[in-house]
Amino acid sequence: MTKKVEDFKRERNELNDVVMKYAKKHIKRFYNLDTNVYLDGALPRKTKELLGLVSSLVLRCDDCVEYHLITSDENGVTTKEIEEALAIGLVVGGSIVIPHLRRAFKIWDELQETKKEKILDKIKSAINNADEKEEKLKTICEILKTNVEHYDWVGFYLVDKKEELVLGPFVGESTEHVKIKFGEGICGQAAELERTFVVQDVSKETNYLSCSPKVKSEIVVPIFKNGKVAGELDIDSHKTEPFTKWDEELLSKICDWVGKII
Ligand code: SME
């Protein structure tokens, strides 16, 4: 949690405690309603948090916007979903909403930076604490899949002598693509061209090896060892256009570290 978010939560709790010191049944009932209305129902919790966020933005309540950004983040809302929700708030509320939109994105950015740092800390300990290379790589996959909502398949491919990628540790459904030649598919292109490939919609990529019809997008980051591609980190998502700079920064850092242990 960022310092700002911690302070916000603390102040909110302290003020609620004061309210509860005086509150009788009407205030208490309203507070109850305010909690229960956001619980999972026909609409999932995530959607309800976004509805709360949009209404708060239109009403220009910065505290309410911040609260719903925090709860959205805690409930696995993605950056793309936040951007689309805030866009609706802007269109409905008009340009008078813009100062509040600025603050909203600033808070979201801080939440995402903190999330990235926390994930990197967990990965650093996995690299330092696990004994075997296999175990380190598998744990990295698990940390990424558990902590990033839009990661549905996370795996490593390692380069063998014949300019070929061989599937290493992974988390997610098993894949038929256990060996991939350089140049083939998104993985093969990333290895051949020695650069990160971000494919936001795999249906538009002609050189693509499908693992499952559920996969909508993919990011592949090469891992360099002594200046040469030694492997790559491959991530599939069941969402279209989920990847941002945030993913590239997170995954490049991890691949830098992995390059030193493979
Ligand atoms: N889709 C990849 C193949 C590997 S799977 O995603 C696990 C590609 O086009 O290279």
Walkthrough of the structure:
There is one protein chain. With 262 residues, the protein is an alpha+beta fold. It has two domains: 3-114, Up-down Bundle (AhpD-like), CATH 1.20.1290.10; 133-259, 2-Layer Sandwich (Beta-Lactamase). It is built from nine helices and six strands, in the order H-H-H-H-H-H-H-E-E-E-H-E-E-E-H. It has a six-stranded antiparallel beta sheet with strand order 3-2-1-6-5-4, sandwiched between helices. Strand 1 (153-160) and strand 2 form a beta hairpin. Helix 3 packs antiparallel against helix 4, helix 3 (45-58) runs parallel beside helix 5 (79-93) and helix 6 packs parallel to helix 9 (245-259). The radius of gyration is 22 Å and the shape is elongated. The protein starts with a helix and ends with a helix. The mean pLDDT is 97. Methionine sulfoxide (SME) binds next to strand 1, helix 8 and strand 6.
Q: How are the strands ordered across the major sheet?
A: 3-2-1-6-5-4
What's the rounded overall pLDDT mean? Answer: 97
Tell me the count of domains: 2
CATH level 1 class label of the largest domain: Alpha Beta
Q: Structural class, from secondary structure content?
A: alpha+beta
Radius of gyration of CA atoms, rounded to a whole number: 22 Å
Order of helices and strands: HHHHHHHEEEHEEEH
Q: Report the end-to-end length measured between terminal Cα atoms.
A: 32 Å
Shape: elongated
Bound ligands, each once: methionine sulfoxide
Give the topology, please.
Layout: H1 3-22, H2 25-36, H3 45-58, H4 62-74, H5 79-93, H6 98-129, H7 133-147, E1 153-160, E2 164-171, E3 179-181, H8 185-193, E4 197-199, E5 217-225, E6 228-237, H9 245-259
Antiparallel strand pairs: 1-2, 1-6, 2-3, 4-5, 5-6
Helix pairs in contact: 3-4, 3-5, 4-6, 6-7, 6-9
The structure holds methionine sulfoxide.
The site of methionine sulfoxide (SME) has 15 residues, from strand 1, helix 8 and strand 6.
